[in-house]
Write a structure and sequence with these properties.
Length: 310
């Protein structure tokens, strides 16, 4: 795609989108940043300490998110960054523009805007259980063991899932003297040392592999959980750690994805639709991390500069 003055849309203001915004400012490329919820994205849900994004340690993701947002604000004063930033503006669809070479983005307000290039920095969302009673049981469900464990210390809890996140969660809950039950529909995929530690604990019980949760029945102060073997038990809290899914707005055409729905990109972070780039967690990557997302933002911004140079 060639154009002398690119007009770029960044969808999502997590680490990837914020980094793309900073780099597009550095490269003096006109752009607009759209964020459906809050700047910082997934970082607001990271309750663990972040020790692998040098050179600092952060108490949790929120602390880093706040630092990133302050940095963006301070740059406007220091460097005169010019970009439109729309918060709480969800992009619901991307259409091929009929008049010009580029794309029309439609937001939840119905507003349509034209852009020559689009950076999808939309990240992932936690997978939910598609079972009866799920929506009515929100107050009994948590996705963060680090955050919730202190409030359920000594209580009986259920963890749904068999990956690292589920078993890491079980370890944290055991440290808070919880009575932990684990339920996984397939073989535990978590690292062996996690599985070994859980199996050795007297306070943890793994249900037979294949037994699934089929229904939630909220009661006064516990959640009654019905399993696929017909048995049921009550829990103070249920932790659903069954993975995440990539978030992609409605598109005019099919983009190449991997089996799990993550967007395939080339070395410029460009998807199979020329002009649309995918950065951070929404794209196929061997490592979903802050560093990867920040790096992708710069890579895609530079690629747009090179691709649009005359
Ligand atoms: C529990 C947990 C612990 C973690 N710990 C670490 C760690 O220690 N170290 C590390 O490096 N990484 C860690 N990670 C991973 C890291 O948080 C992510 O890789 C990174 O935050 C992803 O950034 P992103 O910008 O790609 O996506 P996100 O942060 O998910 O941002 C996507 C943004 O897009 C917005 N959005 C989505 N769709 C739309 C739309 N249609 N319109 C407008 N906006 C939209 C969302 O609201 C969101 O703000 C952890 C993740 C989790 C869940």
């Amino acid at each position: 795609m060639k154009s002398s003055s690119p007009k770029v849309a960044i969808i999502g203001a997590g680490c990837a989108g914020i980094s793309a915004h900073i780099w597009l400012c550095e490269l003096h490329i006109s752009h607009t940043l759209f964020e459906g919820k809050k700047m910082g994205g997934m970082l607001h849900r990271v309750h663990n300490r972040i020790e692998n994004y040098p050179p600092e340690h952060y108490e949790n993701g929120k602390v880093l998110a706040e630092k990133l947002c302050n940095y963006v604000t301070r740059r406007v004063i220091r460097k005169g960054d010019k970009a439109d930033i729309f918060i709480e503006e969800d992009i619901v669809s991307i259409e091929k523009s009929a008049e010009e070479k580029g794309f029309t983005l439609r937001s939840h307000t119905g507003q349509r805007r034209f852009f020559s290039h689009v950076l999808l920095a939309t990240g992932t969302r936690y997978r939910q259980l598609d079972i009866e009673g799920y929506a009515q049981s929100a107050s009994f469900i948590s996705q963060s063991t680090t955050f919730t464990a202190p409030s359920v210390a000594g209580e009986k809890v259920l963890i749904v899932g068999g990956g690292d996140a589920a078993l890491e969660g079980a370890r944290i809950l055991l440290e808070h003297s919880c009575d932990v039950v684990l339920c996984s529909r397939s073989k535990y995929r978590a690292r062996p040392e996690f599985v070994k530690q859980i199996t050795k604990s007297d306070s943890a019980r793994m249900l037979d592999i294949g037994i699934q949760v089929v229904r939630f029945q909220p009661e006064a102060d516990v959640l009654r959980v019905v399993f696929s073997d017909g048995k049921s038990e009550s829990f103070k809290k249920v932790f659903v750690r069954i993975g995440v899914d990539p978030v992609v707005p409605e598109l005019f055409g099919e983009m190449k994805k991997d089996m799990r729905g993550y967007l395939r990109t080339d070395s410029n972070c460009e998807t199979s639709i020329p002009g649309i780039f995918a950065i951070g967690d929404v794209s196929v990557a061997p490592l979903q991390s802050i560093a990867t997302a920040i790096g992708d933002g710069g890579r895609a911004a530079k690629a747009i500069q090179i691709l649009t140079q005359l």
